Amino acid sequence: MRDLPVNQLNPKIKRVWRINDAIWLTLLFLVCFVPFAIATAVEPAGWLFATLAIIVGLYALCLIVWLVVLPPIRFARWRYELSDDYLDIARGIVWRKRFIIPFIRVQNTDTRQGPILRAFGLSSVTVATAAGEHEIPGLDVQTAEQLRDKAAELARLAQEDV
Question: Which helix (H) or strand (E) holds 132?
């Protein structure tokens, strides 16, 4: 079996993942909690209070798992490597995925930067093939631009060789 790729993401990506996950978990919590809170305010019932307590408990448990436990593991499992012939991406905690993307198949390379990534000075590189897109998140802006440009150049050279 092939060794894991050598390059890791920028460690700041763990904070970005925590912020993204906290936002989504809080929105999900509010969608679940507010209707039961309104129902409890209108007509108090024991089962409604119990349901609210269960929702709050699940929210707290999810916050611990997604904000404390998963980011370091996710960070350790995310790796990438750019060679002259292909881009190698390995990721996943439970379901581990390994992508070997030959540059002959690459159609487009992009960098993306949302507001949270921008706040941390990070960017993502996306490599598109006919089969779909593959993203490498959480690279500092300069590294992302260099990776994007090198991947685009290697894809161009691979197309010329055909």
Answer: strand 132-140
Specify the CATH class of 79-161 in words: mainly beta
Render the burial of 53-73: b for 16+ CB within 10 Å, e for the rest.
Answer: eebeeebeebbeebbeebbee
Domain spans in the chain, listed from the N-terminal domain onward: 8-75, 79-161
Q: Which residues pair with 123 in a beta bridge?
A: 139
- Encode 106-123: b = buried (16+ Cβ within 10 Å), e = exposed: beebbbeeeeebeebebb
pTM score? 0.89
For residues 103 and 82, the answer to whether their CB atoms sit within 8 Å is no
What does each of the 162 residues of the chain score in pLDDT, given as a tens digit?
Answer: 678 899 999 999 999 999 999 999 999 999 999 999 999 999 888 899 999 999 999 999 999 999 999 999 999 999 999 998 899 999 999 999 999 999 999 999 999 999 999 999 999 999 999 889 999 999 999 999 999 999 999 988 888 876
Distance from C-alpha of 61 to C-alpha of 135, rounded to nearest angstrom? 29
